[in-house]
């Protein structure tokens, strides 16, 4: 791997140059954003077990974080409002820190085996309302926080990315042994004398204990 001086590469500098290169979107692409969740968006959301949450801090730094639930847990409170429980994690809370400073967020909802995705953009609020939190309880444990997103844009994204990547085709998946486990990554990072297997086992036990 080598360092590349990006400043020495030719780059697009403005909107006019960008449009000259890629052209204008078709009218149907512009019109597909209704600004709310219609019946198709609501049906997709109800079946989605996975969403990517994009945030940006006050200083402009960005972050994308995954959220996973049983289908149906990501909830539309109405056609203009989506609620997402915040389950226990590693307490870095990068996304939440960003939202406190800059509530603008982007959501990308996925449904396994479905090549289209649902994109939702809007403004997030970190809610601690007890009744709402309790409505998301799993195994008797309610989340401490719920993200409530006011929808400003909502539209489906086409299948090209999933088809190019063959993401849902198991025949294209790499052998798991070709990639390091998280235990191996942490062992190398911390120069730990612990065996990789022991670190992986401890991580798995922690994940199971803190799942909800």
TrEMBL record:
Q: Which residues form the Pyridoxamine 5'-phosphate oxidase N-terminal domain?
A: 38-158
The record, for Gene3D superfamilies, names: Electron Transport, Fmn-binding Protein, Chain A (2.30.110.10)
InterPro entries linked: Pyridox_Oxase_FMN-dep, Pyridox_Oxase_N, Split_barrel_FMN-bd
PANTHER family per the UniProt record, alphabetical:
FAD-BINDING, PUTATIVE (AFU_ORTHOLOGUE AFUA_6G07600)-RELATED
> What is the protein name given in its UniProt record?
Pyridoxamine 5'-phosphate oxidase family protein
- Name the species this protein comes from: Nocardiopsis coralli
């Amino acid at each position: 791997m080598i360092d590349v001086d990006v400043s020495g590469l030719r780059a697009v500098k403005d909107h006019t140059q960008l449009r000259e290169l890629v052209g204008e979107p078709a009218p149907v692409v512009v019109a597909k954003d209704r600004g709310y969740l219609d019946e198709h968006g609501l049906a997709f959301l109800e079946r989605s077990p996975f969403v990517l949450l994009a945030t940006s801090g006050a200083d402009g730094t960005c972050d994308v974080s995954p959220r996973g639930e049983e289908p149906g847990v990501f909830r539309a409170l109405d056609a203009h409002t989506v609620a997402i429980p915040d389950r226990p994690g590693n307490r870095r809370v990068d996304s939440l820190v960003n939202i406190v400073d800059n509530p603008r967020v982007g959501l990308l909802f996925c449904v396994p085996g479905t090549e289209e995705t649902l994109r939702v953009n809007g403004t997030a609020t970190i809610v601690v309302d007890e009744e709402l939190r309790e409505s998301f309880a799993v195994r008797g444990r309610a989340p401490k926080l719920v993200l409530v997103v006011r929808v400003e844009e909502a539209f489906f994204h086409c299948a090209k990315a999933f088809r190019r990547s063959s993401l849902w085709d198991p025949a294209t998946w790499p052998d798991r042994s070709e990639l390091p486990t998280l235990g191996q990554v942490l062992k190398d990072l911390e120069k730990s004398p612990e065996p990789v297997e022991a670190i992986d086992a401890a991580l798995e036990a922690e994940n199971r204990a803190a799942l909800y």
